[in-house]
Amino acid sequence: LSINYINLTNQYRLNLIMKLHNKGWSNKEIVSFLNLNKIQRRNKKDDYTMKDVWVCISKLKKREQRKLNTQFKVGDWELWK
Fold first, then answer.
1. Which of 26, 11, 27, 24 shows the shortest CA–CA distance to 60?
2. Which of 2, 16, 20, 69 could disulfide-link 25, Cβ–Cβ 3.0 to 4.6 Å?
3. Number of Cβ within a 10 Å radius of residue 30
4. Residue 33: which of 23, 11, 48 has the closest Cα?
5. For 11-67, what is each residue's pLDDT tens digit?
């Protein structure tokens, strides 16, 4: 098992995008908001496009589904004395 770690600035950006999406904002509105507030993409350091926001939301939804569907199975235990 491993723990996923996301940088705090990236986590803030992702949470903001998902929060706006959950409030019912369209991708175009989210792009405008991000660009007006000078929030740039993580690696490219340029402005967001509608495709970038769409991919980001899609990946966040998939990540949340993986968290919900995680299952653990522990095998038989043997005790030795």
1. 11
2. 20
3. 24
4. 48
5. 999 999 999 999 999 999 999 999 999 998 988 889 999 999 999 999 999 988 988
In whole angstroms, what is the distance from residue 10 CA to residue 55 CA? 15
Residue 35, token pair as written in the block: 């660009």
Asked if 27 and 54 count as a contact pair (C-beta separation under 8 A), the reply is: yes
Q: What is the CA radius of gyration of the chain?
A: 18
Residue 42's contacts (CB-CB under 8 Å, 6 or more residues apart) are: 10, 13
Number of neighbouring beta carbons within 10 Å of residue 6: 12
Name the pTM for this structure. 0.76
Q: Which DSSP string do the residues of 7-61 spell out, in sequence order?
A: -HHHHHHHHHHHHHHHTT--HHHHHHHHHHTT---TTT-S---HHHHHHHHHHHH
67: tokens are 């968290």
Report yes or no: 31 and 50 within 8 Å, Cβ to Cβ.
Answer: yes
